[in-house]
């Protein structure tokens, strides 16, 4: 029981991190799959009951099966080790081997990839596992892959995210094994898969054993699949573009054209949609042709091709791609049960497809769904950062790398062709983000929320009755605001403009104010009215002008005062009438010049004073002087002219004369002088000079 175990001459060998002969292979079972992980179960024998599992778990272990074509390695990472008891020949251990890619299922992550192809994403994603293979990953790709603007790994393992991206792009994967290592191989063409050459089919007769690897059971099968794909999608940048795309498969049997329609199709242009529809059709049609086989082809693994030869069966001469292989090996030594009853130490069962059939991985990995809204912080350059569509950048709370999102559209309360509402969230704000179809690759900002750093415009709950829209001055200090106070008895609409306020109304504007109105203008006020202006004041009207007032009327000016009108001018008054002036007074007219003189000048034409109903009275406290510089002075009365004064002097130049005419001439006086030779006495009368 304590004798060392020797495996060098055995058909099956096991090598682990504990050494080549610490564990000896008893039994090997497992399966590998195209586009899936392999899992191998190993039963081994050891001489000790206390193997160091810490030195074993997480390390490579390799099973080698000896064939006529050389040893076939099956390498994997030990993910489970178990002591299974003690038997006649030693202690038994059960090991589970899985690919290093399985380790990616142990790590869940959330991160964002910007402007990368699927190859760049996978390379970055799997870089942390590079030390687990030699090499760990190998790309055998022939297609060109587009740059993806925005791709999110959201609450999913590295494994699921990688598989989801490969299925989306039509990339297959399998594993190539070597001693102490295995490599993840990525392909997009069936011809990139290595071939093991021909393997014959020979029916099993129970008596003869073939000399090399062969199949003894072969069964072709067909499956009815979806035969056509129709897709559509929507691109907000080209909302009117045709987006529908379809593809019909190659099925010739009845019901082979059953169509499947899906939305969204995961594309932004119709020509790309046609490629996606073709890819989806191949994913469906790839499940049609299958061949089930049983044999002892230890060299045939998932991802390898084989050509069928030997006894004629349907498909002989064709080449097939192995989709899955199940392996079973029993060692011939250590009393483990020997070979199976069929006489073969190794047997396998296989699922294959013709290498001419569509080879695209089916979409099996679920896309993570964001259940409900999230919040995120607005980021970017400066204070406001948006593009032509008003899209902003946000940083999600779950993103530990500090990456920002793609440009996210912002839901507005109204959005039309050049009209609607527009509020751009600013950097530092916390916004509510939802996801179209729950897809983490399709964020949409639907709202804003306050937080401990960004408080409401007014303290709460003291101002809970206010509704507020307050902005913040960009690149400065200040704000614009429109707020509503709804507290009973204090209702108010408040508007604050940090600088200018413009109102443009193309037709009527009506304002009705139930009580007082107060208006204060700190500087100038200008008012332009294209047509009429009417002001009606129910009571008094008072205007105070500290400096000058200028009134310019292009047409007539009419003032009507029902009661009295008083005009008080502290300084001078100047009035110019360029045409006719008419002054009509229904009652009395009184002009008083308290100090100084009164002067009336008529430049051309005559001056007439007409008193129609009564007399005219002129009272002057001092002298009255009437001078006609170029003409005469005529006084005419319908009855008589009375000139009454203490003395009266009528005087003409020596070369002229004074003429008094009439029916009678009466001259009365105490003394009368007519053309005296001596100068008449000085009477004190006014001279006409």
What's this entry about, in short?
The protein has about 700 residues and is mainly beta. The chain is built from 4 helices and 28 strands. It is about 5% helix and about 30% strand.
Layout of secondary structure:
Elements: E1 12-15, E2 24-33, E3 39-46, E4 60-67, E5 70-87, E6 90-98, H1 100-103, E7 108-116, H2 118-126, E8 137-140, E9 148-157, H3 158-169, E10 172-178, E11 181-187, E12 195-201, E13 215-222, E14 228-231, E15 245-248, E16 259-262, H4 270-285, E17 289-295, E18 305-310, E19 319-330, E20 346-354, E21 374-379, E22 393-396, E23 409-410, E24 430-435, E25 443-449, E26 466-470, E27 481-485, E28 492-496
Parallel strand pairs: 8-11, 12-18, 14-16, 23-25
Antiparallel strand pairs: 1-4, 2-3, 2-19, 3-6, 4-5, 5-6, 7-9, 10-11, 13-17, 14-15, 17-20, 18-19, 19-20, 21-22, 21-24, 24-25, 26-27, 27-28
Helix pairs in contact: 2-3
Domain Gp5/Type VI secretion system Vgr C-terminal trimerisation: 468-572
Keywords: Secreted
Protein name: Type VI secretion system secreted protein VgrG
Folded structure, characterized:
This protein has 689 residues and is mostly beta strands. Among the domains are: 12-99, Roll (Pnp Oxidase, Chain A); 374-449, Gp5 N-terminal domain (OB fold (Dihydrolipoamide Acetyltransferase, E2P), Beta Barrel), CATH 2.40.50. Helix content is 6%, strand content 28%. It has four helices and 28 strands. The chain has helices spanning 100-103, 118-126, 158-169, 270-285, and strands at 12-15, 24-33, 39-46, 60-67, 70-87, 90-98, 108-116, 137-140, 148-157, 172-178, 181-187, 195-201, 215-222, 228-231, 245-248, 259-262, 289-295, 305-310, 319-330, 346-354, 374-379, 393-396, 409-410, 430-435, 443-449, 466-470, 481-485, 492-496. Strands 1, 2, 3, 4, 5, 6, 12, 13, 17, 18, 19 and 20 form a twelve-stranded mixed sheet that branches. Strand 18 (305-310) and strand 19 form a beta hairpin. Helix 2 packs antiparallel against helix 3. The protein is rod-shaped, with a radius of gyration of 56 Å. The N and C termini lie far apart (169 Å). Mean pLDDT is 89; it is low at 335-343 and 685-689. This is Type VI secretion system secreted protein VgrG. Belongs to the VgrG protein family. Residues 385-450 form the Gp5/Type VI secretion system Vgr protein OB-fold domain.
